[in-house]
Amino acid sequence: MSYLEHFGLAEQPFRLTPDPDFIYWSKQHARAKAYMESTIWLADGFVVITGEIGSGKTTLLQSFISELEDDVVYAVVSQTQLTATQFLQAVLTEFGFKPFNMRKVELLDMLNMFLIEQYSNGKKVVLIVDEAQNLTRKVLEEIRLISGIETHKEKVLRIILAGQPELRDNLNSPSLKQLVQRVRLRFHLSALDRRETREYIEHRLSVAGRKRNDLFTDDSLEVIQRFTDGVPRLVNTLCDTALLCAFADEKKVVGTPDVLAAVNELDWRERVDESGIREKLRHVPDRAPVGEQVTKIEVHSDDEVVSEYTFPLGRAIIGRSRDNEIFVNSKFVSRHHAQLVSDDKGCVIEDLNSTNGVFLGEKQVKKYRLRSGDRVSVGVHELTYYDLRVPQQNLESSDKTLPDAEDGDQDSAVNEQ
What's this model's pTM, rounded to 2 decimal places? Predict the structure, then answer.
């Protein structure tokens, strides 16, 4: 019996990949979306949405985009470590142009003509900038300037800035006073409270096919709140691991012991900082107790091993954000680039809608079941996978030829559950 069948689920309920179908509309998420929707009919200022890592900003943006009418033209820029000229090029690229090898004045003229043309055709234009906390002051000033493009009646570019709390600090800089004056609405997504966390978990389980709200016990939900502080991404990670723990013990209900076992596997600890807010320490040590580890990952740069990780059964996230289990410090790697899911059959790697993709040899893969010894590329780094349950001599004598892998390949051997 599979993981899903065991718990009466049709699909995995706690994926980290943003999915608008699973979004839980807390009061604050609904309010933030209403603010974004207001940009469609009020083109006289910015909307700024901030939130902690994992608070649901990207999912919220995807839900907003999915509901835009046909008369709305939009661009999404999420690679924000750019110069002012590169930013303009990124915006124009999203609008379908090839603006390379052009001077800044030419880029501005191209954007101005495009916006006026769209307005003349009855179109509304929205620019969405995700990860806006990484924008330099020069780029933020450039955004203020292009927001001023107008006809004789109104502004023609609507702008939504979304980012981590650092964005608020950046906007409060005295040098950006003119930009702040253009901010019409500003909203911060805080974590879910206890009631909302319960509703969030029950909602995702319901969307995934669970008929009853009895999979997690009341006391287990309290433990989940304690270790996640209601941050949706952390809730997903802890719930998914707790389900795996319960499944391994052939339990039908997830209780406090299963959640605490998941906390132990994830190596999470809680502490209270000076402000009284719990912080999650999510680093997985390179070496865990012998006998518990099934997956080993070596991270290579220029053919040298720069780091090494081992993991038990469950999920590990790869990315350039330090909240990931596998931290790869590179601008070519997305914040949450890919995930590894180790199960009793081996390990599956899945691209989490990264910017630069995951490659096995020369072929890009979306989801692929790895063989021990396989080497995959993320950006300019390479990751070598080893199944610690496979004797080394068997690996050395096996055929090391890479199998074919197509983009989006759902190999028949790939079955996360």
Answer: 0.60
